[in-house]
Write a structure and sequence with these properties.
The complex is a heterodimer of chains A (about 210) and B (about 180). By secondary structure, chain A is an all-alpha fold. Helices cover about 65% and strands about 0% of the residues of chain A. Chain A has a two-stranded antiparallel ribbon with strand order 1-2. The radius of gyration of chain B is 23 Å and the shape is elongated. Classes of the chains: A mainly alpha (about 210), B alpha+beta (about 180). At the A-B interface, α4 and α5 of A face α1 of B.
Chain lengths: ~210, ~180
C-alpha cells in the first residue's frame, strides 16, 4: 500500500473527474455554488469509502457473475442511508442537492472504484482509495463550482457564506447566467480538464529536469 | 446427473448470495428509516407551519374545500384570509407550496415547502436569497389569475427556469380559484 501514490493518483494523475471522466452527470449538474460542490463531494466521498470497504471485505464471497448486481445493491444501500440522514439532519443541503443525492447510485465513480479497485485489493487499501478518489472528486467539483459561481452569479461561497447569499465579487448586472446553466458546465469543465493536464505536464517536466 | 447437480448448486449460490445481500441491505435501510422518518416528518411539519405563518399572518385552521384543478391539498382559514397548500408539477416533480390569499382574493404571499427543482435554476423559487424573494414578491397583491411575462402576465420568470415559474403560477391560480369558489 502506498498512500502517497494513491493520493497523487486520486488528486491529479487518475482524478475521477478530470482524467477518468466519471460521475459527469453530478459534476455538470450541481456545480453552481460552493455549498453544493462541498456537500456533493463529501457525500460521494463517504459513500465511496463505505462501499469500497464493504465490497473489498466481500470480494471473495461475491461470485463474479453477479458482482455488478451485488455492488449496485450495496452502493444503493449506502446512498439511501446518506439520503435519509441528510433529509433528517441537514435539510438545507438535501434541498439544495435535491435529486442528485439519490442519483449517486449511478455515479460511475463509485461503481468504477468498486470494480476497478475494491474487488481486487484489501480492505484498508480500498478505504484509502475511496478517500483519495473522493478527495480528487471533491477538489475538481469545488474548482468547477468556484469558477461557475463567480462567472455565472458573480459571487463566492454561495449557500455557505454571508447568510447563503455568498460574497458578491462582480456586481449583479454583469455575470453571464449561461455559466450556471448546462452550457457553462461543459465549458468550465473543459477548461478545468485542460488546466489539470497542463499542471501534470509541468510537474512531469520538472521531475525530468530534476533527474538530469 | 453429477453435472446437473453442480449446475443447480451453482445457480443456487448466485441467487442466494444476491438474496442475502439484498435482504441485509433492506434490513439496514429499514433500521435507518425508523430512526430518520420521525425526524423528517417533524421537519416537514415545522416547515408547513412556518409556511402558513409566512403567508397568512396569525395562522389558521384546516377547513373543507372544493377544487377542480386537483392541485390543492389542504386549505387553512384564519383571521387574515386563507392559506392554500398546492402542489403543481414543476420541472422535476411536484412543487409543494403554500399560497396566502386574503378575503378580497388578493395574494398575500407564497412560500415553497418542498420541491425537487434544479439547483441554482428552478430551486431559486424556494431559495432564501434576494433573487428568490424577488420572484416570490411578484405574486404579492395579484388577484384573478397570474402568468409569467412570456405568457402575457406580469410575473418576471426566473432566468433559465421558465417551467418552474409557470408551475408556480399554476399553483397560485389553483389557489385563487379555490378561494374564489368559497366566496
Amino acid at each position: 500500500m502506498n498512500f502517497k501514490k494513491q493520493f497523487n493518483e486520486g488528486l491529479l494523475t487518475k482524478n475521477p473527474v478530470t482524467v477518468q471522466l466519471l460521475g459527469m452527470c453530478s459534476t455538470l449538474a450541481i456545480t453552481t455554488s460552493l455549498f453544493n460542490g462541498i456537500g456533493m463531494g463529501l457525500a460521494v466521498t463517504i459513500i465511496t469509502i463505505c462501499s469500497n470497504v464493504l465490497i473489498s471485505a466481500l470480494r471473495k464471497v461475491i461470485p463474479s457473475q453477479v458482482r455488478i448486481a451485488a455492488y449496485i445493491t450495496i452502493i444503493a444501500g449506502f446512498v439511501t442511508v446518506v439520503d435519509l440522514c441528510l433529509q433528517a439532519f441537514l435539510p438545507a443541503l438535501a434541498e439544495s442537492l435535491g435529486v442528485f443525492i439519490p442519483l449517486i447510485v449511478v455515479n460511475c465513480m463509485v461503481l468504477g472504484r468498486a470494480e476497478g479497485f475494491a474487488s481486487k485489493n484489501g480492505v484498508l487499501a480500498s478505504a484509502v482509495d475511496g478517500l483519495c478518489q473522493g478527495i480528487g472528486y471533491t477538489v475538481a467539483l469545488v474548482i468547477t463550482c468556484v469558477i461557475r459561481e463567480l462567472l455565472g452569479s458573480g459571487t463566492f461561497g454561495g449557500g455557505l457564506l454571508n447568510g447563503g447569499e455568498g460574497i458578491r465579487i462582480i456586481p449583479a448586472q454583469f455575470p453571464a447566467m449561461q455559466m450556471v446553466m448546462p452550457v457553462g458546465g461543459f465549458l468550465v469543465l473543459g477548461f478545468v480538464i485542460a488546466g489539470s493536464q497542463a499542471l501534470m505536464k509541468y510537474l512531469d517536466k520538472k521531475k525530468k529536469e530534476g533527474v538530469k | 446427473m453429477k453435472t446437473n447437480e453442480n449446475i443447480v448448486k451453482y445457480v443456487l449460490r448466485l441467487a442466494l448470495t444476491l438474496f442475502i445481500i439484498g435482504a441485509v441491505v433492506a434490513a439496514c435501510l429499514a433500521g435507518v428509516n425508523s430512526i430518520t422518518a420521525p425526524a423528517i416528518e417533524q421537519l416537514q411539519y415545522e416547515k408547513t407551519q412556518e409556511a402558513i405563518q409566512a403567508v397568512l399572518p396569525g395562522g389558521g385552521d384546516e377547513i373543507d374545500f372544493t377544487d377542480d384543478s386537483g392541485l390543492v391539498s389542504v386549505v387553512y382559514k384564519g383571521e387574515a384570509g386563507y392559506a392554500v397548500q398546492v402542489a403543481p408539477g414543476g420541472f422535476d416533480g411536484p412543487i409543494t407550496m403554500m399560497v396566502g390569499i386574503d378575503f378580497e382574493g388578493k395574494v398575500l404571499g407564497i412560500s415553497v415547502i418542498k420541491h425537487t427543482e434544479t439547483a441554482g435554476l428552478g430551486a431559486v423559487a424556494a431559495a432564501k436569497t434576494s433573487a428568490g424573494e424577488a420572484f416570490r414578491g411578484w405574486f404579492v397583491g395579484q388577484s384573478g389569475s397570474v402568468a409569467v411575462t412570456k405568457d402575457g402576465g406580469s410575473v418576471e420568470a426566473i432566468t433559465g427556469a421558465t417551467i418552474t415559474s409557470r408551475a408556480v403560477c399554476d399553483g397560485v391560480n389553483a389557489a385563487l380559484d379555490c378561494v374564489a369558489k368559497m366566496g
